[in-house]
Amino acid sequence: MKKYFLFDELGTTYSREIIGGVTTFLAMAYILAVNPLILADAGMDKGAVFVATALAAIVGSLIMGVIAKFPIALAPGMGLNAFFAYTVVLTYGIPWQTGLTGVFFSGVIFILLSLTGIRETIINAIPQQLKYAVSAGIGLFITFVGLKGAGIIVASESTFITLGDLSQGSVLLAIFGIFLAVIFLTKKVSGGIFFTIVITAIVGMVTGVVKTPESIVSAVPSVSSTFGVALDPIIHDFGSLLNTQFLIVVLTFLFVDFFDTAGTLMAVADKAGLIRKDGTMPRAGRALMADALGTTIGSLFGTSTTTAYVESTSGVAAGARSGFSSVIVAILFALSLFFFPLLDVLTGAVTAPALVMVGVLMVSSLRLIEWNDFEIAVPAFLTVFMMPMGYSIATGIAVGFIFYPITMILAGRRKEVHPLMYVMFFVFLAYFIWVR
């Protein structure tokens, strides 16, 4: 087992991988509760979506761990599920069954792109300086997500965002957790982020801020209402898919998941020290295939697009370095099918400290960017800035990648730009003009 997962090469142990896997699961387990709530607004059964969410995470994380051997977990993505429910179904008026068909199509296209090596080639064509920017941008993004989820940062009509009500119990619990995490990480306590989540959850239950579960075990809900319905329009009414609106749906799923996953892979691999000296990723093709298969299989079970989770960086921060931690995540998602009531404990206040600390660790890559070169500084800065401000990893990548070839050409360095970066320049422009 150690030899297969390259423990000696990566300098890791079973205990580090298990703690890392548990930490990643705790940081992302909220999706089991949130995804059914969002997709229920589209008319889907909550229980079926809960099971589909867990199954998609199990399949994607297992493939990522066993085949790609990366410490990265997968599950249905936030943002993509909101697009599915509120844009595809509620705005476009497309039935959720057809929406799942769109997810299925995007997954199949991803599989083809992964088999041909096109996705891996595109990721390896991205310059190292922008990869550093993507990593830092994701750090700021997940910090923002954590603070927002805890209520420390809230919406404001006058200033867009502002400081939340610091007298609220959930906010105080999150602040307590952040201070606790700072203490653990400053003292270099192994598994400090994991212990922070556990202790914060316990304090939350003791103080009444976090609801204590009424039960521990529950029956696994039926998935019969969603299983296989993605194939129904293909089999019985294929003509209904032949329209521009459905094409836009598929392309949006493709675009957002492609670059969300690419950004997450680069960020986690960089933090885990898995990026080669030439800036490429080992086994990148296998990692991308895990995402593609997770999306395809997840759509058949009845959930929106499956993607790599940036919360995996919390597991890396806790010590995970190999795919064994992803296997642990898959096992925990499988067990969660029987322990759904316990997931109510993982509120935004409980997981916020982990996300904030991961953000602190990830922005360290800013020091590696050549800020004195203006042609590099502009796209790098816009990539970092637009992720939290646009509330999208893909948007940050798109803006930065549009400016990169422009500034490099103006600086007389066009020969240093990989040809694929010019292709992506036009792809991103088209995305903003016709899709976004």
From TrEMBL:
<feature type="transmembrane region" description="Helical">
    <location>
        <begin position="74"/>
        <end position="94"/>
    </location>
</feature>
<feature type="transmembrane region" description="Helical">
    <location>
        <begin position="21"/>
        <end position="42"/>
    </location>
</feature>
<keyword id="KW-1003">Cell membrane</keyword>
<feature type="transmembrane region" description="Helical">
    <location>
        <begin position="322"/>
        <end position="343"/>
    </location>
</feature>
<keyword id="KW-0812">Transmembrane</keyword>
<feature type="transmembrane region" description="Helical">
    <location>
        <begin position="350"/>
        <end position="369"/>
    </location>
</feature>
<feature type="transmembrane region" description="Helical">
    <location>
        <begin position="166"/>
        <end position="185"/>
    </location>
</feature>
<feature type="transmembrane region" description="Helical">
    <location>
        <begin position="48"/>
        <end position="67"/>
    </location>
</feature>
<protein>
    <submittedName>
        <fullName>Guanine permease</fullName>
    </submittedName>
</protein>
<dbReference type="GO" id="GO:0005886">
    <property type="term" value="C:plasma membrane"/>
</dbReference>
<feature type="transmembrane region" description="Helical">
    <location>
        <begin position="100"/>
        <end position="118"/>
    </location>
</feature>
<keyword id="KW-0472">Membrane</keyword>
<feature type="transmembrane region" description="Helical">
    <location>
        <begin position="288"/>
        <end position="310"/>
    </location>
</feature>
<comment type="similarity">
    <text>Belongs to the nucleobase:cation symporter-2 (NCS2) (TC 2.A.40) family. Azg-like subfamily.</text>
</comment>
<feature type="transmembrane region" description="Helical">
    <location>
        <begin position="417"/>
        <end position="434"/>
    </location>
</feature>
<feature type="transmembrane region" description="Helical">
    <location>
        <begin position="130"/>
        <end position="154"/>
    </location>
</feature>
<dbReference type="GO" id="GO:0005345">
    <property type="term" value="F:purine nucleobase transmembrane transporter activity"/>
</dbReference>
<feature type="transmembrane region" description="Helical">
    <location>
        <begin position="192"/>
        <end position="210"/>
    </location>
</feature>
<keyword id="KW-0813">Transport</keyword>
<dbReference type="InterPro" id="IPR026033">
    <property type="entry name" value="Azg-like_bact_archaea"/>
</dbReference>
<dbReference type="InterPro" id="IPR006043">
    <property type="entry name" value="NCS2"/>
</dbReference>
<dbReference type="InterPro" id="IPR045018">
    <property type="entry name" value="Azg-like"/>
</dbReference>
<dbReference type="Pfam" id="PF00860">
    <property type="entry name" value="Xan_ur_permease"/>
</dbReference>
<feature type="transmembrane region" description="Helical">
    <location>
        <begin position="246"/>
        <end position="268"/>
    </location>
</feature>
<keyword id="KW-1133">Transmembrane helix</keyword>
<feature type="transmembrane region" description="Helical">
    <location>
        <begin position="389"/>
        <end position="410"/>
    </location>
</feature>
